[in-house]
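Notebook entry, structure prediction.
Reason for the run: the old model in the group folder had no record of what sequence produced it. Starting over properly, with the input documented here first.
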Amino acid sequence: MLKDVLKVLENDARTTTKQIATMTGTSAAEVTKLIKQAEKDRIILKYKTVVNWDRVEDEQVWALIEVKVTPEPEAGFDSIAERVSQFHQVRSVYLASGTYDLLMVVVGKSEHIIADFVSENLAHIEGVQGTVTHFVLKRYKDDGEILEGGEGVKRQPVIL
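New structure, fully documented this time:
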């Protein structure tokens, strides 16, 4: 039952308890109880709106930053991941396989601001060995939502 409620909310957090009850075949009171318990247990962490910032005048620059770290003896990668998670520019932090250990999603007002974040903040954290920054040129899909579409191809055809 809880999984069904969570799937509905994950798809659209504005779905009312009455609508969820109808969709899942349970009572609105039971849905409310499940949601409150899931919030208390930190199963539901927050409710969120996905914004297509490219359609808003307030421009944002997104970057994917790979971070190579030396794991700490007692805390491994967790301690460094917790430290970098505290910066407001950091949207997401993941432990990843491959050459680099952490993958971060960082957002700033410009490439320069993100570069400053890397050189002034990230590089000075003990245990950080190196970084690679990839600037996002265009976002097509974010958090399961297609950001652009239905407008047709905007490029000019290539004539040979």
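Summary: The chain has two domains: 2-40, 59-138.
The old model has been moved to the deprecated folder.
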